[in-house]
Design a protein that fits this description.
Chain B: This is AP-1 complex subunit beta-1. Chain B: Its main location: Golgi. The complex is a heterodimer. Chain A has helices spanning about 25-35, 75-95, 100-105, 105-115, 125-130, 145-155, 215-225, 230-240, 260-265, and strands spanning about 5-10, 15-20, 45-50, 55-60, 65-70, 115, 120, 170-185, 190-205, 210-215, 250-255, 270, 275-285, 290-300, 305-315, 320-330, 335-340, 345-350, 355-365, 370-375, 390-395, 405-410, 425-440. By secondary structure, chain A is of the alpha+beta class. In chain A, strands 11-13-9-8-23-21-16-19-18 form a nine-stranded mixed beta sheet, with no helix packed on it. In chain A, strands 2-1-5-4-3 form a five-stranded antiparallel beta sheet, sandwiched between helices. In chain A, strands 14-15-20-17 form a four-stranded antiparallel beta sheet, with no helix packed on it. Classes of the chains: A alpha+beta, B alpha+beta. At the A-B interface, strand 2, strand 4, helix 2, helix 3 and helix 4 of A face helix 2, helix 4, helix 6, helix 8 and helix 11 of B.
Chain lengths: ~450, ~950
């Protein structure tokens, strides 16, 4: 199991050091600093073995978090734990920075004592932790409160406490997708996938039982096997929606979702944590709507000049508007000057980033825009050819490129007197660019 | 208020000030002071001097302050054990606190204080906490048992904590169950033999139920524990798999990987015809692909595991090539791993896409990545024959870029392509030769030289090219020197007239001016070959090379199976078994996949961690290789060879003898001149004993004893036992037995190649042993041993080797070498192979000797359950050279007086008492007398084996 946990600043100074196992000596702290943080080379692996001691590290801004062990631990678990720890710290004091860590070191030690016992990760849901790690000293808790805390921390529903009350029961669903693309210069899709998340913010009283439904192909087809009557009705409805069901390659769920039920019936049912959480993640690769197409044209004119022309085309309903569009066109390292002409938006050559950055605030669907640039090059005797990194793109569109649609989210709370109809529900779709690249 | 100010105080007299503050009356001030102490502790300052003052702050109702004091205690208690006792009272009191959070905190902290005296006080509170009404206290106490076990294992056992911990597996609270499972699994790892976890269908059922209810971490503990279980049949395996598959949709990647581990392992037991098997395979792919959208560090762990899974079951991910395409901003470690998997998945169906990608990667910035990409193109050419042509032209394009390391890497892989497809792509040689000057890495130089030598007849200026390399011969690395030597010899054999000088030059450089033994040996062999029999030389040097295999970098199958059992863990990240990086006995239990069963009804209860070796006879594998290695290096290789080898003829060691003799006769022949060249035999030559594979092969028939002799008559032959499991010898499995037939002893070996590559160049050597056993001939394996092939060999043994007394007496330590490595094992030989044919003593002599040997040398044994009469026993023993001298009948008992002689001349006298008339008593009594009483035990064993078979 995890033998110890260290947090360093960018200089390699220790901010937090907590050792759980006897086999980890004080020199382990220095070994990591010397061999990894101060190493001259770029980090070649997130797992490092130094003298039979293994170090796992992750970096958040310029803070290093390292877990150390001498055993054959579950490596995936260690990284998951480190990420979880970052989440917990962020939930308590915001951004993970040297200042925040120094300001909260007592709290961090208290948390580390609670969420990692002898190197075994324990309940690390912030919802539960915040009920008893408060930094307020000991509150005069009543006996009931105490046993409520312990049963929540150890219980089946460790992520939600009882007795939550809202005057207005409300929930927000965000379908956040990032669409990834790698396209060849000729316009051939080399790989494309959407990785999506359904984030839920729930402000619901009691212990509500929720059921979430979407246009998952497997579910729709299963239901389609019902009566012929129903089927025809559904067909009609789907046709009016335009897009039919979608094929989900794979999905994973927050720990509140009953996985065995999903496995047997493919229904998504759960008791949500209070506040914001990520209900599910999913991935699709079929029938993706690619919101933009990038058409590059690069011409080398002699040894000292490069002509670049890039056309972007938007490919969605004209009534919708894409926002925050940014096209990044890489330039060679020996660029001496750039002239840019674009019809829409603003374009600038950023020497520090070796790229031309072209920004457009808004763009409607089914439109086209282009930029052309002349790049002057300094003559070099560098033999190595310029690697021509791909042209990348950022944008945000108000629909889900995978085609996912929320069909329902039903809420049942048998003990309290509010029904599914009383809950106010909001659904929002946002499609963002992930790694959206076109080679040139 | 912020806490960061505590990090900044670094003035003198700080400790003194802190002391005062700690003893302050004001609560706030106290707390501030403790915070400062903790901050100093974190940055590595020694604040142990404040121990009593800090401990004084422990008695407080402020939970935050209490936790800080506890933190201090955990750090410094070990350095101040006496002072730490001061804290015990507070702990014991806290364990009784009405607040469960405080009870848990106390028991949690106490377990972290590694001071013996405190541990004693811990037992009672711990016992109470294990049965506490509050689940939070119980789950903390469960982990505390593991802590205590780490400090004092005996104490935990004596106090019966392990049983209480086992009971917690049936606890109503899932988190208590999970922590108990985690604690027990860790304790069980340090006691591999104990049956602590005692997994049976009932307990498995409990775990599977808890799996649905506990936290993500608890699910990991339970799944990792489940993976150690061995279902009794395929039905049970399937039902566990069905209940584990829902975990594949968990958001936590570690839960997913642990579930994959359980499924991969139990899948071994399912029949491939089963519908469920196919369904399971399909279910595994999507979650594995999803892991690649996790954070980069987890992607890395996932990719290392996918690498194993793809090797074990390629069918799972064969359609998922695209997801492994490298993204421009992937971290380098993710890029390199993805590349590895891409090559593994490359097939005819997707090769076009893969090649396009690889070509793209070859223009990236990171040198390592680019090299690997270029190498990958070569591997594709070798793996997918249809793509070879395109790969070669891609490589040529890359060479045109003139980027130094790209060119070098390309040449290295083109060499491999030439080996795979001989005489197909020679047209590119010209292009390669243009880049000769830019090669500065040994591997690339060696590859280029190999190409020039191999295709010398088609390269007009081959001699010039090679000569240019020869100028700096001594500055080259060994790899290049060896290659250059071979290439020039090849050139000479192809164009003898023009290159005599060159070859003389390289031979003398290699043999006289070099102090590298490998180079020298190779030089001598070539020299001698050329000087004695150029035709043979041509056959040897220009022999057709075996085609290189498609997959050269696969993990050896036995290791792969073991690593599959460790999916998700560090072992799977390092691709090494835990014993390679974990210290001490922890976690080095060898794991293996369950055997495939076809609905077997066997009622055997399998162990938690089954061992890979078959049960029953297993040779003692020598524990410490170091010692033996030293010993083997001191082996007497016969008398030291001095002077020219022509003189060495009467030597004991078969290998030397053969080589010497073989060369002797070869050299006697008239050298068939090539253009009348006269070679002078090298002046001094120390010929290595075991290198003569190609030379000795002509004589191999002589020693081919395997066929023919068989088991005509002769002493009892034990069935073959595995001496060297494939696990320990990189895929070579050796089993064998000893036989004695008409006066000659031999070792019957069965070599099985369980690796993926061809094995050649076998040789065998014994360490010195009690009876001077030594091979009488070299180990003759005619053809290279291809994967999954088995050969049977009979190795004649002599007893004239050097003698050293072994413990046990009949221990034989053996070294076997092949082209891969040298392996060591030891085995026990039955003593009766040493009983000689003329071991019959005459009666008078027997009597006299019996009296002469002192009584204390007599040893008595019983051979149980052996219902034989005197005649039967006598004839059985006689066939193994134990001779009956006389027979008497005393009071209804048959007495046999017997004698035998060992190869080293030791006589053993025996008296065997048989009670034929008494069916209830089938035991035989054996008395042995011998001047060397230490052999008696082994002679008795020989008796027993012979009589019972």
């Amino acid at each position: 199991m995890i033998g110890g946990l260290f947090i360093y600043n960018h200089k390699g100074e220790v901010l937090i050091s907590r050792v759980y196992r006897d086999d980890i000596g004080r020199n382990a702290v220095d070994a990591f600093r010397v061999n990894v943080i101060h190493a001259r080379q770029q980090v070649r692996s997130p797992v490092t073995n130094i003298a039979r001691t293994s170090f796992f590290h992750v970096k958040r801004s310029n803070i290093w978090l390292a877990a150390v062990t001498k055993q054959n631990v579950n490596a995936a678990m260690v990284f998951e734990f480190l990420y979880k720890m970052c989440d917990v710290m962020a939930a308590y004091f915001g951004k993970i920075s040297e200042e925040n860590i120094k300001n909260n070191f007592v709290l961090i030690y208290e948390l580390l004592d609670e969420i990692l016992d002898f190197g075994y990760p324990q309940n690390s849901e912030t919802g539960a932790l915040k009920t008893f790690i408060t930094q307020q000293g000991i509150k005069s808790q009543t006996k009931e409160e105490q046993s409520q805390i312990t049963s929540q921390v150890t219980g089946q529903i460790g992520w939600r406490r009882e007795g939550i009350k809202y005057r207005r029961n409300e929930l927000f669903l965000d379908v956040l997708e990032s669409v990834n693309l790698l396209m060849s210069p000729q316009g051939q899709v080399l790989s494309a996938h959407v990785s999506g998340r359904v984030v839920m913010k729930s402000y619901l009283s009691g212990m509500p039982e929720c059921k979430f439904g979407m246009n998952d192909k497997i579910v729709i087809e299963k239901q389609g096997k019902g009566t012929a009557d129903e089927t025809s009705k559904r067909c009609l409805r789907q046709e009016s929606c335009g897009k039919q069901s979608i094929a989900i390659d794979d999905c994973t769920f927050h720990q509140c979702v009953r996985l065995s039920k999903f496995d047997s019936e493919r229904s998504i049912s759960f008791i949500p944590p209070d506040g914001e959480f990520e209900l599910m993640r999913y991935r699709t690769t079929k029938d993706i709507i690619l919101p933009f197409r990038v058409i590059p044209l690069v011409r080398e004119v002699g040894r000292t000049k490069l002509e670049v022309k890039v056309v972007i085309k938007s490919n969605f309903k004209p009534s919708l508007l894409a926002q925050k569009i940014e096209v990044r066109i890489p330039t060679p390292l020996n660029t001496s000057g750039v002239q840019v002409i674009c019809m829409k938006g603003k374009a600038k050559y950023k020497a520090s980033e070796n790229a031309i950055v072209w920004k457009i605030k808004r763009m409607a669907g089914m439109k086209e825009s282009q930029i052309s640039a002349e790049i002057e090059l300094l003559p070099t005797n560098d033999k190595k050819k310029w690697a021509r990194p791909p042209i990348s793109m950022n944008f945000e569109v108000p629909f889900a490129p995978s085609g996912l649609k929320v069909r329902y989210l039903k809420v049942f709370e048998p003990k309290l007197n509010y029904s599914d109809h009383d809950v106010i529900k909001w659904v929002r779709y946002i499609g963002r660019s992930g790694i959206y690249e076109t080679r040139c | 208020m912020t806490d960061s100010k505590y990090f900044t105080t670094t003035k003198k007299g700080e400790i003194f000030e802190l002391k005062a503050e700690l003893n302050s009356d004001k609560k706030e001030k106290k707390k501030e002071a403790v915070k400062k102490v903790i901050a100093s502790m974190t940055v590595g300052k020694d604040v142990s001097a404040l121990f009593p003052d800090v401990v004084n702050c422990m008695q407080t109702d402020n939970l935050e302050l209490k936790k800080l004091v506890y933190l201090y205690l955990m750090n410094y208690a070990k350095s101040q054990p006496d002072m730490a006792i001061m804290a015990v009272n507070t702990f014991v009191k806290d364990c009784e606190d009405p607040n469960p959070l405080i009870r848990a905190l106390a028991v949690r902290t106490m377990g972290c204080i590694r001071v013996d005296k405190i541990t004693e006080y811990l037992c009672e509170p711990l016992r109470k906490c294990l049965k506490d009404e509050d689940p939070y206290v119980r789950k903390t106490a469960a982990v505390c048992v593991a802590k205590l076990h780490d400090i004092n294992a005996q104490l935990v056992e004596d106090q019966g904590f392990l049983d209480t911990l086992k009971d917690l597996i049936s606890d109503s609270n899932p988190m208590v169950v999970a922590n108990a499972v985690a604690a027990l699994s860790e304790i069980a790892e340090s006691h591999p033999s104990s049956n602590l976890l005692d997994l049976n269908p009932q307990s498995i059922n409990k775990l599977l139920t808890a799996l649905n209810e506990c936290t993500e971490w608890g699910q990991i503990f339970i799944l990792d524990c489940l993976a150690n279980y061995m279902p009794k049949d395929d039905r049970e395996a399937q039902s566990i798999c069905e209940r584990v598959t829902p975990r594949l949709s968990h958001a936590n990647s570690a839960v997913v990987l642990s579930a994959v581990k359980v499924l991969m392992k139990f899948m071994e037991m399912l029949s491939k015809d089963l519908d469920y098997y196919g369904t399971l395979l399909k279910k595994l792919a999507p979650p594995l692909v999803t892991l690649l959208s996790a954070e980069p560090e987890l992607q890395y762990v996932a990719l290392r595991n996918i690498n194993l899974i793809v090797q074990k079951r390629p069918e799972i991910l064969k359609h998922e090539m695209k997801v492994f395409f490298v993204k421009y901003n992937d971290p380098i470690y993710v890029k390199l791993e993805k590349l590895d998997i891409m090559i593994r998945l490359a097939s005819q169906a997707n090769i076009a896409q893969v090649l396009a990608e690889l070509k793209e990667y070859a223009t990236e910035v990171d040198v390592d990545f680019v090299r690997k990409a270029v190498r990958a193109i070569g591997r594709c050419a070798i793996k997918v024959e249809q793509s070879a042509e395109r790969c070669v032209s891609t490589l040529l394009d890359l060479i045109q870029t003139k980027v130094n390391y790209v060119v070098q890497e390309a040449i290295v892989v083109i060499k491999d392509i030439f080996r795979k497809y001989p005489n197909k792509y020679e047209s590119v040689i010209a292009t390669l030769c243009e880049n000769l000057d830019s090669l500065d890495e040994p591997e690339a130089r060696a590859a280029m030289i190999w190409i020039v030598g191999e295709y010398a007849e088609r390269i007009d200026n081959a001699d010039e090219l090679l000569e240019s390399f020869l100028e700096g011969f001594h500055d080259e690395s060994t790899q290049v020197q060896l290659q250059l030597l071979t290439a020039i010899v090849k050139l000479f054999l192809k164009k003898p007239t023009e290159t005599q000088e060159l070859v003389q030059q390289v031979l003398s450089l290699a043999t006289q001016d070099s102090d590298n033994p490998d180079l020298r040996d190779r030089g001598y062999i070539y020299w001698r070959l050329l000087s004695t029999d150029p035709v043979a030389a041509k056959e040897v040097v220009l022999a057709e090379k075996p085609l290189i295999s498609e997959e050269t970098d696969l993990i050896e199958p036995t290791l792969l199976d073991e690593l599959i059992c460790y999916i998700g863990t560090l072992a799977s990240v390092y691709h090494k078994p835990p014993s390679a990086f974990v210290e001490g006995g922890r976690g080095v239990v060898h794991k293996s996949l369950p055997p495939r069963t076809a609905s077997s009804e066997s009622a055997e209860s399998p162990e938690t961690a089954p061992t890979g070796a078959p049960p029953g006879e297993q040779p003692d594998v020598i524990p410490a290789q170091g010692d033996l290695l030293g010993d083997l290096l001191n082996l007497d290789l016969g008398p030291p060879v001095s002077g020219p080898p022509l003189a060495t003829s009467s030597v004991q060691m078969g290998a030397v003898d053969l080589l010497g003799g073989g060369l002797d006769s070869l050299m006697g022949d008239e050298p068939e001149g090539i253009g009348g060249t006269n070679f002078v035999a090298p002046p001094t030559a120390a010929v290595p004993a075991n290198l003569g594979a190609p030379i000795g092969s002509g004589l191999s028939d002589l020693f081919d004893l395997t066929s023919g002799v068989g088991t005509l008559s002769g002493s009892y032959v034990a069935p073959k036992a595995v001496w060297l499991p494939a696990m320990k010898a990189k895929g070579l499995e050796i089993s064998g037995t000893f036989t004695r037939q008409v006066g000659s002893i031999s070792m019957d070996l069965q070599l099985t190649n369980k690796a993926l590559q061809v094995m050649t160049d076998f040789a065998i050597q014994f360490n010195r042993n009690s009876f001077g056993l030594a091979p009488a001939a070299p180990l003759q394996v005619h053809a290279p041993l291809s994967p999954n092939q088995t050969v049977e060999i009979s190795l004649p043994l002599s007893t004239v080797g050097s003698v050293m007394k072994m413990e046990p007496l009949n221990n034989l330590q053996v070294a076997v070498k092949n082209n891969i490595d040298v392996f060591y094992f030891s085995t026990l030989y039955p003593l009766h192979i040493l009983f000689v044919e003329d071991g019959k003593m005459d009666r008078q002599m027997f009597l006299a000797t019996w009296k002469d040997i002192p009584n204390e040398n007599e040893a008595q044994f019983q051979i149980r359950d052996c219902p034989l009469n005197a005649e039967a026993a006598s004839s059985k023993l006689q066939s193994s050279n134990i001779f009956t001298v006389a027979k008497r009948n005393v009071e209804g008992q048959d007495m046999l007086y017997q004698s035998l002689k060992l190869t080293n001349g030791i006589w053993v006298l025996a008296e065997l008492r048989i009670q034929p008339g008494n069916p209830s008593c089938t035991d035989l009594e054996l008395s042995l007398k011998c001047r060397a009483p230490e052999v008696s035990q082994h002679v008795y064993q020989a008796y027993e084996t012979i009589l019972k078979n």
